[in-house]
Structure formats: C-alpha cells, structure tokens
Amino acid sequence: MSLKMNEPSSVKEQYQKSDNLKTRISIHDKYSTNKMGIGNWYFTIYKIENGMKLLELGCGTGSMWIKHKDAISKCFHIVFSDLSEGMLAEAKKNIGEAANAEYKVIDIQEIPFEDDYFDIVIANCMLYHVPNIDKALAEVSRVLKKGGHFYASTTGGNGIMETITRILEIDLVYVNTFSLENGTEKLKPYFSKIEIERYKDSLEVTNIDDLMEYIYSGITFKNACKMPTDEVRNKLLSCMEDGVLRLPKDPGMFVAVK
Fold first, then answer.
1. Above 50 in pLDDT, residue 8?
2. What is the CATH number of domain 2-257?
3. Among 45, 80, 148, 251, which residue carries the largest CB count within 10 Å?
C-alpha cells in the first residue's frame, strides 16, 4: 500500500492543533545524536540581512525562532504564516509581538502578497503536504524578488518512518511528493540556481513508548496500519540493542535562488 504524505484531510486533522507537532518535534529533541538541533542548523544556512522582507510558510509553533529573535529584528517586515489558525496562535505565543512581525493564515497555493515583494521565503517540511506543488512553487517564485532565496527543507528516502515500516515488515510505502531526491526537478521551472544542504543526524531511542507516541501522532500511519499496537511495540522492542533502537534520519534543505 502506498501512502501519500500530502493528503489534505489528513494534514488538516493532524495539524489542526499543535499537540501532534509537539510530539513529533519532542522525539528529535530527546533522542537526536546531532545536538546542534536542526532548527539551529537552519540558521547557519539562512542569509537574513538587515532590512529584508521575509515570509515563512507553515511556521507551525514557531519554535525555531525562539533562540533566534536577533534574525527577526533584522527584518523590515517578517510574516509568520500557517494554514492552521490554532498553530498560528501557538507561534504568536512562542515568538511574541514585534512591530515588524505579522501573523497571517496563508495557503501557499494562494499567497496574498504582490509580485517581487519578499527577499526570503521559507517552507520547512511542508511542501510534501501541498496538493498542488507546481502552483505552490509558482506562487513562491512570484512573490520573491529577483535574486531572492527560497529555503525549503524536507527529507530523503532513508528516514525514520521508512525504516520503521521495514522493521514492521508491513506493505506501506511513503510517497514523498517533495523529497531530497525529487525536489530539484520540481524547483527547476521556477528558480535559476538550486543547491542541496544535508544535515547529518540519527535517533537513538531508549524508551519505545516515546517512539510509539511519535509514530501514532502521524495520522496517515495511524489510519493505514492494521497491525495491533502491541505487536508494533514488540517488533520495535526486538530491534533494540543494549537498550537502544537506532534509526536513521535523512533531513536536508533546498536553497533556491530566483
């Protein structure tokens, strides 16, 4: 069975509130072997300069900005956006008010800003949820200035859930419609220069209950997996070595220039 990562109804259900996103973030915070943290790594890639206009699409809880408010202060205008009003409220609570900051519900397929407005557009781990990626990328390109940067993080084909489905020996294939493998071809029609940055990391999980909470926070897996939860748990436990279950991660970021 193939599972698409961009089913609109599943995405809306999964991220209507911030609880599932917090669960998915927390396992990385707790068990990642790379202690830099991917949110901090993002800011080593971003080129945010004084006076810029910046749009983040799918900002979620805004957690990556909490330790990087200096980047916010550099901007002339910064827009934090999400499709979920609940998620946006959480982001506003975490990031706080600023004279140059705006919080706005935005669908990436219909960005309500004029042409050539932003210097930077950010979309982290969200393009594979978008029903019409071509339309979304056309909109991102439209609102970017000539020479502007689009930063789009995603994952490759050797990630956590791909590994878990192999461990469980179940016929579930995750179809990532915007991955590190296929993203370049999707970006090419809209951007003049495209590079990929990769972040080396993995998980070393010592509490299977935390991992169970993580995998069942994904609505797609929860709805599709017919294996009893006790059997899932036991199979994962059987793969632990010296009390640790090691899982690869395959994150990275596209840096595209208009």
1. no
2. 3.40.50.150
3. 80
